[in-house]
Every structure is written in structure tokens, then in C-alpha cells.
Amino acid sequence: MRLNYSVAAFLAVLGSARAYAAPPQVVGMIPGLWQITVQTTSPASLAPVTHAICVDRVLEMRADPPKTKSKDDCQVSLDPSASNETAFTVRCAKARTSSSSRFKYLGDHVTGTVVMTNASGEIHQDYTATRIGDCEETQPAPPLPQTPQTPAQPAPVTPPAH
Length: 162
Description:
By secondary structure, this protein is mostly beta strands. Helix content is 7%, strand content 39%. It has one domain (5-133).
């Protein structure tokens, strides 16, 4: 299955998760099976795109914004946000593009918006993610059988048929 760019971007934000001191209530994503929907609302309203993913313990806490180096064209700046939110803006000078992202983590669901701006205009996307159950347990593939290492044997010689 091929993920579209929007869902891949959402997963990238989730994949950069970090642990931090959280208040007693859940301020992140509960591990399990999640349904993620992306709805582009402008410049045109498009059909929503939905995928199901398994979120593991690595993604329990809210995600950090992407990291950039000072020499990178695109720079990330943090936007004011609540303790259960991730909000940031990415500005790319050479490409003359920017995007603003804000995601709110509510334990069993996440909401968010991303607004991307370039010379052609603005694209607005709404994200919703809902925990829909537990992930199915899968067994890892059994290890390949180990064969003893034997010196290479010449192939048997078969006399030609007459």
C-alpha cells in the first residue's frame, strides 16, 4: 500500500517523538491501532484519505517539530502551544515556501492542521487520528535454518548419452 505525502508527513512528525515530563493525564498517543484521515480543504475540497497504522511505544508522547541546522534553507520555529500540542512553522527562503503545523494530542485522538504556502497559493489540510483498537500481534518470521558450511564439491560428471 502506498501512503500519500500528507499521511507520510504526519507519520514523520509522529516518528520524531520524544519523552518528556508529562502531567498525570495522557498527553500523547496511546499505543494501538490508529485511523488517520487527511482532508484537503483548500484550494479545493478533496476526498479524505484514510490509513490505519499501528502506533507503538516509541510514539506515546507528543512529537517534536522537525530539526534543522542553521545552514539549512528551511528553518523551523516553534509557535506558542499548550502542553498537549505541537506547533511549529517551517520557512524555506530559497524555495519561497512555508508551512504552519499544529497538532493537539488527546490520548485516544489527535487533531491537527497544516497550512502550506508557496507562490501558487495556499493549501490547507485537516488531520484527525483516532485510536480504534489494539494492534494485532504478529509473530516474527522463524529464523532461516542454518546449514553447516562444507567445502564446495565439484559437480558430478555425467557421461554423454550415446
